[in-house]
Amino acid sequence: MSAAVGTDPIEQIATQSLDIDPVTYFKNVASDRGYYVIEIPRLTIELVLKLFGSANTALGALGAVLSKVVQTENIVFFAQDIIALPKQCTTFANKTIQWWNEEASLQEFAHQGRKFIGHVGSTVGDYADGCAALIGLGAPLTALKVSSVVGSVGSAIGAASRITDYALEKPSVRSHNLMPQLDKVREAVAESRDLWNLSRDVSILSLSVLSLAVGFSSLPVLFSVGLPATILGSRMAAYYRELQLKAIDDSCAQMLAAKKIVKK
Amino acid sequence: MEMTAIDTKQELEVVADQQVGSCNASSCWIRDKGSYCVTALHQIAVHVKDAAVATWESMPPADMVSNWIGDKGKYFLESLANAADHLRLMPTLAGRSESQAWTSVNTGLKNAKNVLAFPSVLKGAHTFYYAVQSGAKSVRNLAGDFCYLVGDTIDTIQGGLGMVGSKIPATVQMLGKNMYLAAPVQFLKNVTGVYGLGNTAYNLTLDLEKLKQIDVTQGATPKGMTKKDGVALKEQIVQAEIDNKWYDRLRCVSAAAMCAIGLTVSIGMFGPASPWVFAVLGSVGVYGKYNMYAAKTRGECFQTKYAELLPERVQPLTVK
User: Fold this and answer.
1) What Å distances lie between residue B10 and A176, B24, B213, CA to CA?
2) How far is it, in rounded angstroms, from Cα B111 to Cα B116?
3) What are the chain B neighbours of A79 within 8 Å (beta carbons)?
4) Are B74 and A34 inside 8 Å of each other by CB?
5) Residue A83 to residue B118, Cβ atoms within 8 A
6) What ipTM describes this predicted complex?
7) Are B52 and B302 in contact (CB under 8 A)?
């Protein structure tokens, strides 16, 4: 029997653990999401340069350095995609076999196929950007370079697939076997996280499509700075939710103690 | 047939009398039926342990590596730079000159990684400020924090300048005087590195000693687990913490060694060190950083499962 909403001690502790102060948040960002810290001044400089002209060479040089550093995150993304690729291939291959043996429906097969194509698209997009980043750092890799058009198409496919995932799949939150009260709190946080991820993916898709249509350099400041800023903001907000989910798990000890007291 | 039945009944009564005579009813029940409970509890314990182990084992290394790359992008770039460093030096083994292509890859990645020290500068500055304000830290540790702050700041500046194809100038004009700059900055970086990293390695050694003294056989054994299984699970948690600190110390020692060698070179104590020394020490550092993360994740996994699967029966083991 769980207590009424808001009075259950476990739910209260879970709710309290959601309060992550800005300093703790930014320390976590600095430790595990260092790129965000670089991206903020980069976007600010880009905005200033776009609004007030690029006469300031020092600011321009700083912006160029930060831009090169931020671009290296694509190498990180590409590595993550490549590592996850074998698993995606295996899942898709298994689903294909199941469909061939009539153990899975055509819809299930198509769903897995779409996820696989989305992952490949995202990998291609990150490869293109990662390669450009390495070339920007002075690596002689021009032979391995792919067109930015291919990269944008890949990124768009990847983002579109993730948006479809959001529409079709439930929030990916792990259920707490022995503390079902937590599910309510966790689900709300996970839903919000997924919503922020959706915002990120919609922005990536918009940016990719606009880049394909008119070229990134021709985009007005609203899009060329606004969309990357939205991507960054969404990622930062989603990371905040991730930290909240982790905080709920970390407060397990307090919850157990509370449960013990209530039982007594 | 009848005689046999009576005999059997009498025999059973005799046995029952003997049993009742040797123990009271409740202890007999515990002895006879309690074995079922013990078996059931043992089964639960085995499941708890297996669930924790299976959760860890079900996390394939690919996921772990992917998480590490995502969380520690800076270290990932460092590992790429390190790989490029080895590839750069490979031709020297065959008596040829260093590979220019890999030199530029190595330099570019190293510069980017150095600029990524900037978030650490912000974090370090905040931590240092509050540590000074609160007075909670010893002077030794405060000095260590300050050294990290200085080192990360120099890294950021060096990386940023490197990315625009520039370096810290060898000399600058300050107050009308020609001041040497590049060499003192490098010297400062190496000195702060040796102290800061050495201090952390020392702290970790103390922590490791404390961790090794934890007696996992003491304290509450969770209900539903045998003492042996409870101890085994606690051992896993403590071992993960020991591994985390051990690898942290390894990477600190390797980085401190690099700084110390850099220092001896910069003051001209010995001749120039072989670039292989830095490449190998760098690899040890990257290896340590990855294993730290792996051990931390493993420990968290056991801690969470332990806490979740054993509600209200025992407090999760806290080793920090």
Assistant:
1) 56, 21, 59
2) 9
3) 66, 69, 76
4) yes
5) no
6) 0.84
7) yes
